Amino acid sequence: MQFPILSFIVFTPIVAAILIFLIPEDRKNEVRVAALAAASFALVLSIWVYFAYDIQAGGYQFVEQVSWIPALGISYKVGLDGMNAPLVLLTGVVMFTGVLISWGIDDRPREFFTFLFILATGVFGVFVSLDLFMLFFFYEIAVFPMYLLIAIWGWKETREYAAMKLTLYLFVGSVIALVGALAMYFTAGLGTFDMLELEKAGFSREFQILWFPFVFIGFGVLGGIFPFHNWSPDGHVAAPTAVSMFHAGVLMKLGAFAALRVGLMLLPEGAKFHMGWIILLTLVNVVYGAFIASVQTDFKYVIGFSSVSHMGLVLMGFATLTKQGFIGSGIQMFSHGVMTALFFAVVGMVYDQAHTREIPKLGGFRKVMPIVAVCFIIGGLVSMGMPGFSGFIAEFPIFMGVWSSYPLIAIIAAISIVITASYIIRVVGRVFYGQMPQEFEGHVHDVTVLDKIALLFLSFILVALGVFPGWMVPLVESGVEQILRLLGGA
Amino acid sequence: MSGSVFNVTMFLAILPELWIFVLASLVLILDLVLPKEQHRVLGWITAVGLILGILISLLVAVPSEQAQFVWGDLIRFDRLGFVFKILFMFGAAMTALFSSNLEKLGQRGDFYVLMLVSTLGMCLMASAADVIMLYLAIETTSIPLYVLAGFYKEDNKSTEAGFKYLLFGAMTSAIMLFGFSYLFGLTGTTNLYALVNQVVQHQLSPFVLYGVLAFILVGFAFKISAFPLHFWAPDVYSGAPTPIAGYLSTASKAAGFAVLVRVLWVGFPEIQPYWVYVMTGVSIATMTIGNLLALAQKDIKRLLAYSSISHAGYVLIGFVAVSELGATSVIFYLIVYLLTNLAAFGTVAVFEKTSGSSEIASFAGLSRRSPWLAMMMLVSFLSLAGMPPFGGFVIKFSVFAAAVQRGLIGLAVIGVLNSIVGLYYYLTVLKVIYLYRSEEEQVAVPIPQASKVALAVLCIGIIVMGVIAAPWFDIGALGARALW
Question: What is the least distance, in Å, from the CA of B469 to any CA of chain A?
Fold first, then answer.
């Protein structure tokens, strides 16, 4: 048997969480070092597994299978393909940088990292699951620590409200999808939750049309699909920095990815039937999200709504059911994850220094934190879809896909690029340039070395993907081939 | 099958009961012999004795696949009853550990004797194959529990709890006995397994059976605290000593379900559509009312009482599926639920001893006062909410699966919506524990040795059952197959 690399990736965080909880409470530095060690280990493993994936061979690799409840045909089955490999890498990256950014947390860091790592295990687990039951299992593991992380370490003004809202939204979405999954299991009559088997179950067209919306929208809630996107900006804003990074960077991908894997791939006929109206919802996401972002005065809300807009593009790419659309969405999930993690990290750093996030009150931060400013601008360029950055590699194929099936929608959606450019440039101009207000002079300092490492690491990935798309595009393409085969070569 | 000649099987069939009886006598003697200051040890003796009983039963008294009737057909020696017996003994052992540090409770020998006698009754309930045996077992269980609920004589609330429990218990049990008497009058038999043939032979009208069953269900609904006989639970739980409230909400409820499954599935298959219809309604009402009323609670014991009402509703989802998967999910649910709810009440008991209050608000700052106790509450509450990797997730999944398998999608949807309401109030408690500050933050909450052991066992159990679910699920399946 080969080395169970995926299990190592999935269980490293939770084992680390348990060990961290055993460290005495007052040894805060040991807690942080242990967390960083575990995060680095997970990052190295995820980088290794990403580049070890054999694109020529394609399909699911590093597959592990252990029977779990044989009586119900549930097994722990994990595997890597072209769609989830970038997401595993993304999770490793966000986890690593999240720990770096959270170094300064002083209120019960032990509990903080414990919950954060339980969350990380859930996220890794969902991405690599090939068993429907295990997917739900890990999905729920990813949801509940979020509540505590936001409610305890979040922004005092809204944390209780936002944490509960987020948890309930996500839980509602997932349990509705769960009923759909159970219906699939019993209708297929194969006595297995193995998704590779269920793909071949041959569900009737009526069944697929009936259940597809439940499953797709149920998971889509976590992907921020309109009109169920409401939890997401509130949640982002209330969460502590590292959690916002996880949340917008990785968790929202969880929803989109699960909607793809369970909704689209298991119920392709249903997808063909319903995508016509779902793409309209995603259009609202894209354009409306961008508009709302452009009128916010709170720095963090701007980024929060920009996530809604960008995640709309991911779902829109899926909804085209075309090869370009899927490739674009696959890359956009990675690119947006890194970008938004960068954004939230920057917002957190600015807030820690200025103690306000009101954009009109800020200004001139370029002078005290030049590296932060540069990194934010790189993120901004990604966000606008500038060529040479990862955002272009992701968004261009999506628009190509949309254009080939719905030209009108492509035109409307393209408006969002202009709006995005406008609010990003406004934020850059107001926050980092211009005159620094009197009260900040002398009080605002540069960020720590660890923060800089985290930002530079994230920026490096965004540029590297923009300049050399070759290390991701063929991989995602190989994953898309499988989806297209299920859709009947559409 | 006559009971005139004694044989080994007969004694193996009631080995757990005999063991408990001997243990109870031992505790009674020690209570007289031991000096007052050493009475704390009685809790350990009870717990260790029960665990030994479990081990011995597992070694020598496991029933074969083929069920046997013993003691003049009063008892059915089968795996369904056996699984429940082990469960009751385990629950009683944990309760004994939680009680042992409470001065007015755990340091009195009569407390343990009463609890053991009640456990003995539950064991008989789980294996009774005859309504007379069943009735005696239910009374053997209930009477000590009435006393236990009102054990704090000086405390008005406890006395009130004891009386309330006694009055409602006696009333519902009388109605149930009335139903049993009709059953005998109509069919000429008191044996559950002979009932079906008699019903067919006498060509009884289903309407008569509906009436009889309605009487009987009153007694059962009281035991499992299902709607409309759920209202006693919050008052009794909040007044009774906390470990006893935990015991009432787990073992006693599980015993009720053991009886419910056996009597309805085995005794009344002729009118199955009728009782499935009724119990579906009961299930929906029970979980919805339990969850909605839990939202408004300020006292954690009342909150747990309503939550345990709603859990009875979830178990009924598996029950009305009437299938092998349904029975498996019911047993599996009760196993995990017993551990989870005992852990929840156990943590409350530990905290209550220090703070003297069971108001939810008094739990503020617990995570700073005692991170481990807070973590244990987190584990048990999230498991109650049905979150992985805890056992609560797998059991919820299995009852919903049982419902969907039978096409009861509407019921499953109501179940999942209810679990969202549940999540809300469980999280509210966790919020108080982790987020709110309190003025007593510097005061640590010591966890007594016995409670530490019990909580560790329960929490590890909750996680193990969630992560390695198959063996426990298979135990449920073993019990389910033994039903017929």
Answer: 7
Chain centroid to Cα B17, Å, comes to 17
Q: Between chains, do B435 and A183 touch, taking CB under 8 Å as contact?
A: no
Contact yes or no for A71 and B474 at CB 8 A: yes
H helix count then E strand count, chain B: 22, 2
Neighbours of B10 (CB within 10 A): 16
- Delimit the domains of chain B by residue range: 8-481
Written as one string, the DSSP assignment of B356-370 is S--BGGGGTTHHHH-
What φ, ψ does residue A169 adopt, rounded to 5°?
A: -55, -50
Tokens of A242: 């590292």
Token pair recorded at residue A304: 């929060």
Reported as a single tens digit per residue, the pLDDT across B364-415 is 888 888 889 999 999 999 999 988 889 999 999 999 999 988 888 889 999 9
Q: How far apart are CA B125 and CA B21, in angstroms?
A: 15
Q: Which residue carries 């999930």 as its tokens?
A: A333
Give the whole-angstrom CA distance, residue B287 versus residue B257. 15
Whether residue B226 lies within 8 A of chain A, CB to CB, comes out as: no
If you write DSSP's letter for every residue of B384-404 in order, what string do you get?
HHT-TTSHHHHHHHHHHHHHH
A76 beta partners: A66
Over residues B198-241, the pLDDT tens digits come to: 888 888 888 888 999 999 999 999 999 998 899 999 999 999 99
- When CB atoms are compared, the residue of B388, B404, B470 closest to A179 is B404
Residue range B85-141, pLDDT digits in tens: 999 999 999 999 999 888 788 788 889 999 999 999 999 999 999 999 999 999 999
Among the partner residues A21, A151, A186, nearest to B404 by beta-carbon distance: A186
CA B307 to chain centroid, in Å, comes to: 13
> Cβ(B473)–Cβ(B332) under 8 Å?
yes
C-beta of residue B270 within 8 angstroms of C-beta of residue B187: no
SS3 A307: helix
HSE (side-chain half, CA atoms, 13 Å) at B131: 28
Q: HEC string of A102-145? A: HHHCCCCHHHHHHHHHHHHHHHHHHHHECEHHHHHHHHHHHHHH
Structure-token pair, residue A115: 């919950």
Burial of B161 (0-12, 13-18, 19+ CB in 10 A): buried
DSSP letter assigned to residue A247: I
Is residue B430 within 8 angstroms of chain A, CB to CB?
A: yes
Residues of B in contact with A143 (CB under 8 A): 387
A440 secondary structure, DSSP code: G
Question: Which two tokens mark A174?
Answer: 């997932």
Domain ranges for chain A: 5-486
User: For residue B468, what are its two tokens?
Assistant: 């390695």
Give the separation between CA A117 and CA A263, rounded to whole angstroms.
28
- The complex scores an ipTM of 0.86
Question: B470–A172: do the CB atoms touch at under 8 Å?
Answer: no
